[in-house]
Design brief:
Layout lengths: L1 H14 L1 H39 L3 E6 L13 H9 L3 E17 L2 E10 L1 H10 L4 E4 L9 E4 L1 H6 L10 E4 L2 E9 L5 H4 L2 E4 H7 L6 E8 L5 H16 L4 E5 H44 L1 H9 L4 H40 L11 H28 L2 H6 L1
Helix pairs in contact: 1-11, 2-9, 2-11, 2-12, 9-12, 11-12
């Protein structure tokens, strides 16, 4: 008997192909939006978590307040850097100098970029703490001065001719030799970095340029939160102000999750509206079907069809439309996610990877069926309550 319900419902759908497709479109759009949102969000979250894992849970970042948002141009002085290095909480201290718009010349072509200066002897340890290494050439050696290491994307795209290990390049009119090209990280900012030894950095830039950030590796066995409190207390007394911030990987991850959560709420609201419109479309279409098929309903009842039979037929019809819309929407949603991934890769953000999630697709189809069932219940109930005489007269 159940098979007969499906046969009757399917015949009704195929007889009204155009209306059925138009009814399903709302569900397709809503489910596609949901699947694209969830799959892209999951891919982005996985990529960011992998980066945080590389950064290490024991690494801290001491920065002027507002540095993460780019809203401040202050820095730490030499004496403040020395003070931090004398504190007994760290295995490693990596001070970094930073200048915007350093001039770089290669084969008579000029580009301006951001420069980062680090102690040559610390650079290898710093990159190891980030689980990074050179894809070509090598990292700095202790005592090295007029050498430069560039990011993967900077080497490939910044100049007309691709930069190679061994090339000479002028930075602020001083000749440097490229000794290494970093492996591709996957985001445009990191892949466009340019590193030079701190001694050379101080020479070719203003002597007043301070340290824009200091990365600290906390000793094993120390509690991270307690150590952060101790650093804040000691450093605020040293500076006589608290115009600085100490970021842990957990702080940055929390900030990322908050931003991603807001984005998900906004996009989820848009997807919910699309599903609501799709559900209203199904309800409207099913009410129209009931009006058009009054005689058919009367005939079924006159030959023994019960109210429950009529209700099931119309509910199944609505749910089939929902299932079709959900299946197409799930496939389309992943197509949209793949397009977003391709766009992100083209823009230099290669960390984003979208993976097909079968349970998520099944969830999309099942959710569409539920929405369709809820939307189709009232029209189905109305069809079931039609009187035989009124139906045949209609």
């Amino acid at each position: 008997m159940n098979r007969e319900y499906f046969r009757i419902a399917w015949n009704a759908i195929t007889k009204r192909k155009v209306r059925s497709w138009l009814t399903a479109i709302g569900i397709v759009i809503g489910i596609a939006a949901v699947i694209a949102l969830i799959s892209t969000s999951n891919g982005l979250k996985t990529a960011i978590l992998e980066q945080f894992d590389k950064m290490g849970t024991r690494n801290l970042y001491l920065m002027p307040k507002g540095a993460m948002s780019g809203s401040v141009d202050s820095s730490f002085t030499e004496s403040e850097k020395d003070f931090i290095e004398r504190l007994p909480y760290f295995e490693e201290v990596f001070p970094m100098k930073y200048i915007q718009n350093g001039k770089m010349e290669f084969k008579k072509e000029t580009q301006y970029t951001d420069l980062i200066g680090m102690e040559a002897g610390d650079f290898t340890d710093y990159m190891a703490s980030m689980d990074l290494e050179a894809s070509e050439g090598r990292l700095f050696q202790r005592g090295e001065k007029y050498s430069v290491i560039v990011g993967f994307k900077f080497a490939a795209d910044r100049f007309k001719d691709e930069l190679r290990v061994g090339n000479s390049i002028y930075i602020n009119d001083r000749k440097f030799r490229i000794v290494g090209i970093m492996e591709e990280i996957g985001n445009a900012q990191d892949d466009n970095q340019v590193y030079i030894p701190l001694e050379a950095f101080s020479e070719i830039t203003s002597s007043e340029t301070g340290y824009y950030a200091i990365m600290l590796t906390v000793k094993t066995g120390l509690d991270i939160d307690e150590t952060v409190d101790k650093i804040k207390d000691a450093f605020s007394r040293k500076r006589d102000n608290d115009y600085f911030e100490i970021l842990t990987t957990q702080d940055m991850l929390k900030s990322f999750n908050e931003v991603l959560g807001i984005l998900n709420i906004v996009l989820g609201g848009i997807a919910a509206i699309s599903l609501l419109v799709g559900g209203i479309g199904i309800m409207n279409s099913m009410f129209t079907n009931v009006l058009e098929r009054r005689r058919e309903i009367g005939i079924m009842k006159s030959i023994g069809g019960r109210n429950s039979d009529i209700l099931k037929i119309f509910l199944i019809e609505a749910m089939i439309v929902g299932a079709i819309g959900g299946a197409i929407g799930s496939i389309l949603g992943y197509g949209i996610s793949e397009a977003i991934e391709a766009y992100a890769w083209a823009a230099g953000f290669k960390m984003l990877t979208v993976k097909v999630d079968i349970p998520l697709m099944l969830f999309g189809v099942g959710f569409a069926v539920i929405i369709a069932g809820i939307s189709g219940y009232l029209p189905a109930r109305r069809a079931a309550k039609l009187q035989v005489v009124d139906s045949l007269r209609g």
